[in-house]
Write a structure and sequence with these properties.
The protein is of the alpha+beta class. It contains 3 helices and 7 strands, in the order αββββαβαββ. β1 and β2 form a beta hairpin. α2 packs across α3.
Length: 152
């Protein structure tokens, strides 16, 4: 089954790839790898803001990380890479805006990680970091970047 067919089966529509908010490229391809810049979480057109363990709960953080994962894939497609050419989701980096005592970063990051496994199956399983940070651009609750191995 193609990845596009899998998205339809899962009821997933990818968002439009977001334009960069600063001086960087959304995707850089080098050595057979697509390095995708950190993506922010937009749900129903609105940026998910705030800090986990303060104004944002784990469930909302998980949904925000999932939204970041969708935007990662939208950026890959916008770079002209068919999703069927993804050979492996290599690594995701999840940055979670966290209150001082919040320790649930791995559970939040699972929103993006589980999305990749749901869409790509075994090749969607990846290495990952999930770190708490005091603040993210535009007061985003979560930011996720990724590295994808590309065929051809």
């Amino acid at each position: 089954m193609s990845i596009e067919a899998r998205l339809v089966e899962l009821g997933i529509t990818l968002p439009e790839a977001a334009a960069p908010v600063a001086a960087y490229k959304p995707v850089v391809i080098a050595g057979g790898l697509a390095h995708v810049s950190g993506q922010l979480p937009f749900i129903d057109g609105a940026l998910v803001t705030g800090r986990l363990g303060d104004s944002v709960d784990v469930e909302r953080g998980y949904a925000a990380a999932r939204a970041c994962g969708l935007m990662l894939l939208a950026q890959v497609k916008a770079a002209g890479i068919p999703l069927d050419n993804v050979a492996q989701v290599v690594k995701l980096g999840a940055f979670v805006s966290s209150a001082d005592d919040f320790i649930g970063q791995p559970q939040v990051a699972n929103g993006a990680s589980e999305l990749m496994a749901d869409i790509f199956g075994e090749i969607g399983k990846h290495a990952r970091s999930a770190v708490g940070v005091p603040v993210l651009p535009l007061n985003a609750a979560v930011e996720v970047d990724g590295i994808f191995a590309i065929r051809g």
